[in-house]
Design brief:
Elements: H1 10-22, E1 28-33, H2 39-51, H3 65-71, E2 78-81, H4 101-110, H5 116-123, H6 134-144, E3 154-159, H7 166-177, E4 183-189, H8 197-200, E5 204-208, H9 213-222, H10 228-237, H11 242-250, H12 252-270, H13 274-285, H14 290-311, H15 325-334, H16 339-355, H17 360-374
Parallel strand pairs: 1-4, 1-5, 2-3, 3-4
Length: 375
């Protein structure tokens, strides 16, 4: 992965390249993004640049042995950590990231902008919560205790450090704070506020920005070969996230199902029909995994943003498909001005509790009741 292969975030690319060129490489870095906005590709490109033996014009050459190995995610001194759980695809009772490396490589090489739900589907752990357990910390420390294979930088790339428990973080803390020579830790997170403070405080933090609408449209058509009309529509409603846009373009049935549930919920609360609102909540809790329930929450948050923009009389920047315009205008005309911010706060709370394995049926019934009360 080269910097040139990644659209947007040109300022951050220059910063990373300059850091490597100066030799003042931070020992721990945290890249935070809205899901699917390109932090993982940037981390991979940075690792490749660190180890490239023939850098050119602020980018890796793409041709030296280190670049060729990184392009296949097999550079021997790069170690990957990501949330896992017991799986139907891997017959291991206590799996670690190493157990899933072939599946991880396949997914990242196919689409490095994947969403969390996409990872769990690829690993065969749908319906379970991915975790980074103490076994991961022991594995990484064992690997770092060995001599490096190549004469470059050793890297530990952790995707979603917010999935670490305190025991895992404490085990790694010393290595993150004082790593062996020419060793870097790179953390990629979607929720920096949920990363344990002991880890967060030891990292240089960089924001990976969403793409502008035109840049996202160009990336969808030029890099991924998507239909121009569909790309234009998704660029308007995906919040600058390539991953979200690709997911939506590949999952139209899921989008339609989510939209139907959201409509039923909003029409129920706007008509003061509590029973219908609870029935809509039952449909959310009946989704077949916690990741899909969280995906619905993200979808609902985006829908509330559109209602808010309609209330502000700026529907043109909301990216609303023509066939849905009537629904959003109707909800905007009925909702109180404080409704959308309050509802977004309730959804964030629900996602937090989902991550803590609270019963989904109880959570979404409670969410529907609270939304009914604030409408």
């Amino acid at each position: 992965m080269r910097f040139a292969d990644i659209p947007g975030n040109d300022g951050l690319k220059r910063t990373l390249a300059a850091m490597a060129d100066s030799g003042r490489v931070g020992h721990a870095m945290l890249l935070f993004e809205n899901e699917g906005c390109g932090a993982l590709p940037l981390a991979l490109a940075y690792i490749q640049y660190l180890n490239c033996t023939d850098r050119k014009d602020g980018d890796s050459c793409g041709e030296c042995p280190a670049c060729r190995q990184m392009s296949k995610l097999v550079y021997p001194d790069t170690h990957f950590v990501f949330p896992v759980n017991t799986s139907r695809k891997v017959d291991v009772s206590r799996p670690t990231s190493e157990s899933f490396l072939p599946l991880w490589r396949e997914l990242v090489l196919k689409n490095p902008y994947f969403l969390e739900s996409g990872l769990y589907s690829a690993l065969g752990i749908e319906g379970k919560s991915g975790v980074i357990a103490i076994a991961e910390a022991k594995r990484i420390l064992e690997q770092l205790s060995l001599a490096p294979v190549a004469d470059g930088f050793r890297s530990v790339l952790m995707w979603l450090p917010e999935k670490m428990n305190a025991e895992t973080a404490n085990k790694l803390l010393k290595a993150v704070e004082e790593p062996p020579e020419k060793t870097v830790f790179i953390f990629v997170t979607h929720n920096p506020d949920r990363v344990l403070p002991t880890v967060f405080s030891r990292c240089q933090s960089y924001r990976v920005l969403p793409l502008q609408k035109d840049g996202l449209e160009e990336a969808l058509t030029g890099i991924f070969g998507k239909d121009p009309q569909a790309s234009r529509q998704q660029a308007a409603i995906s919040g600058g996230s390539i991953g979200v846009a690709l997911e939506a373009m590949g999952e139209r049935e899921e989008y339609a199902a989510f939209m139907q549930i959201f409509k039923e919920l909003m029409q129920a609360v706007s008509s003061r029909d509590l029973l219908a609102a609870i029935e809509a909540s039952d449909r959310i809790s009946a989704l077949d995994s916690r990741e899909k329930q969280k995906a619905f929450c993200i979808f609902a948050s985006e829908c509330l943003r559109k209602i808010f923009l309609c209330r502000q009389n700026v529907p043109d920047i909301a990216g609303i498909p023509p066939e849905e315009a009537g629904f959003y205008q109707e909800m905007a005309s009925k909702a109180d001005r404080s409704f959308c911010p309050k509802a977004l706060s309730l959804i964030d709370r629900t996602v937090m509790l989902l991550d803590r394995n609270v019963n989904g049926k109880m959570l979404f019934c409670d969410l529907a009741g609270r939304i009914y009360l604030i409408f």
